[in-house]
Write a structure and sequence with these properties.
By secondary structure, this protein is of the alpha+beta class. The protein has nine helices and ten strands.
Length: about 300
Amino acid sequence: MAGSPFLPETVEKTLHEACHRAGLDPKGATLLRLGENVLYQLFSAPVVVRIARRAEYRVDVRKEIAVAGWLASQGVAAATVFETGCEQPLDVDGFPVTFWATLPGRPGDEDDSRALGALLRTVHGLERPAFDLPEVRPFPRVATRLATAPIPSADSDLLRERMAHLERDVASLHFQLPSAAVHGDAHVGNLMIVESGPVLLDFEAFAWGPAEWDLAKIAAEYSVGMGDPRHYDDFATAYGYDVTTWSGWPVLREVQLVKMVSWLAQNVQHSRRIHDEYRKRIETIRTGVLAAPWRGF
């Protein structure tokens, strides 16, 4: 099972087995997202089931659970684990599975860019947690993605070459902001807006390092047309710093673009729309020319 394509139809068995072990009913579950993880909303209980793509991501999943508890202890509005009586993550068919309490609200959108900036500023102001938080790495999962992504070898060779070049560039950067607990995938899609305000989601990429890493993620998205630039201004104003004014920004931008391409590369078989978006993105990396805006999923 773990060697099968990571598609909804191939992980549905995992969903049913995980729910059976946790004493939950999977009947009527709705697919919420298919990306680095598959997320299902249960119909029978206020629970989101999260199935990680690879067995080797278990360390990151455990970290995610620890981060959720730490953020709650610090008074940060963040997603919480749904306690099932089973130790999490479960190992089901080789996939790490966790259960999260459903948040009654709406997903974040561009209008919430200011809220994201303010929430990230709060997180970056926290003291380093007592548990082990790894140091930031430029490309923590890209090599693993490229090893199995169903893309032409010329594309994967290009991305590996670009990674090697960028890693040398990153090593020479002089960051301006203090080191902090960085989210690692900070964008409005990782917010839920509930009655009390914005709630932060998705903690598997949390690490410790210069705060610029978090700011570069959303700035890179806007730089390739994934949103109205006015909303980026809202984000930067709320956070109190515009990373695009820093001399190291072009390097971090390229790092983020390579990561965004590699994420999509592993999903090119899911739909024609994803395949076509991947082709657009890889040509941007190859030529350095943004022929058309990138679109998110």
